[in-house]
Amino acid sequence: MQLDISDNSLPVYKALANPLRLKIIQILSHNKLNVKDIASELNVSNTITLKHLQILADAGIIAFEKSGHNKISALKVDNIYVRFPERIYPSFDVHETNIPVGHYTEFSVEPSCGLAGPNDYIGKVDNPAYFMDPKRIQAGMIWFSNGFIEYQSPNYLAQNEHLEMLDISVELGSEFPFSNNVWPSDITFYVNDVEIGTWTSEGDFSDTRGKYTPDWVPDNVNQYGTQKILRITDHGTYLDGQPFTPISLSDIDISSQTFKIRFAIKNDAANQGGCTIFGKGFGNYDQDINLKMFYS
Fold first, then answer.
1. pTM of the model
2. CATH code for the domain in which residue 157 is found
């Protein structure tokens, strides 16, 4: 589950702000239980227990199941991430480009793989040939188990403009047939053929529906990813504001007419769990792949 700093996330924050409900989460992390068993563990009444369970269910943290005449509670969430607002650098001017996820310029992928548009899958899933289907430009979500997807963005920098920082923002997840909330995958970033670094996605999430994922997408497949912000500066690269790798702007050729951005699963990756890229109309962030060139 991924949260942000907005009113939409308040039910989850409120659900967690209670010691009894935190205890319930700890109990359910081991087993699915009925109300009576949970109440016994907490040493409180069934009525009070059910009230707290309902708050957790309304927040999407647990789910209720039926087992005969019993109402069973099950933990629904493995991890919760909180995304803080992106910091703004007003002292720099910026060239910004938004690249739809279907507008890739090169690819080499292996099944499981596929593309999804606003109304249906694009072509046949698990057939890489459809990655060249003309309708691919309508894709809002693409996924592959091995290989890479590469995009190009125009380089708008003028001769008198000095690049200070390069930001790439994208929503990513792992890839598992249908989904697997605990499925680590090492996704490697490249810019202009330079390997920037590798980030490990924790899973291919379907514990809750993506905020923007179309209704036609089944509940048991990729719903959302994790928004990652890669920032390359003249003193190193940062991921989500934290030091990532020593690669700096001086290591990258910025004189070409385009910037090439590649997302890859390397053959020697320790966690070959695939890659899902979410774009506008899918996932938890209604955005394409965003490239910002901060310059002075």
1. 0.77
2. 2.60.120.260
